[in-house]
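This follows on from our talk about sequence and fold. Go ahead and set the record down below:
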Amino acid sequence: MAEPGGEPAAWAADFSYDYFRRLVRTAQAHFDVCPVAEAPQALTAGGRPKLILRNDVDVSLERALRLAEVEHALGARATYMVMINSPLYDVDAPRSRAILAQIRALGHEIGLHFDFADPAERAAGAAVETVEPAIAAACARLEAACGAPVRSLSFHRPLPRFLRGPLVVAGRVNAYARELMDWYLSDSGGRWRQGEPLPMLAYPARPALQLLTHPIWWGETHQAPADRLEAFFAEATAGLAPAERARYDAALGEHIQVWRRGAHHPGSTDAQPVG
């Protein structure tokens, strides 16, 4: 991702909304674009290649709404995977519910970004089938918050055994299903691990692509990931009491460590999760 002199390539140093618009426009020119819940029907529809557009909301609902507005202006519909137990936003708060309603009003889908409530459950390495009751309960809570059925899900920090699994889990479309992971591009950690995305979107190599972005990495102008998070932290904690600011700092720091450890999202060609 770096030029010979050590500087990032132009595309790697552009996480601006303008570049995001180029991605979406290029995708629309060469793919039929749809949210995750519509993937099963899209995959059997024939015609042009299909692009499943997904956004995981790990950090900020406000940033998710801004990206949803950008997509809506381009006529694109996406899935916003939302956590119910995020330490960085409260899905049940009135402000959060209002944002979810706005995202839905823009034509987008709200899906579940599922994470274990208890770290011990993750350490136990449960099979997908044993987690389905917890997924159903989480979906019910998210449905109450967003006012609509939750028809799809993704796993936050997915266990290896969850990858390339069944297309439907707990009655919802699984973003980590085998059918949706054969070709997969992600900006996890604020970088495109598979290389420059635009040429891949302009020349589809396979019948279906899942494109995953994270709203936190995008803004009006480019910022490197560390700078983006620092600016976001300053904005999100302005006016907070010292103890609450420290709590938020710890929660955001935990997310950063997950990305750095490479335990966040799987690559399209590797079996192990990568950042």
Summary: Residues 267-275 have pLDDT under 50 and may be disordered.
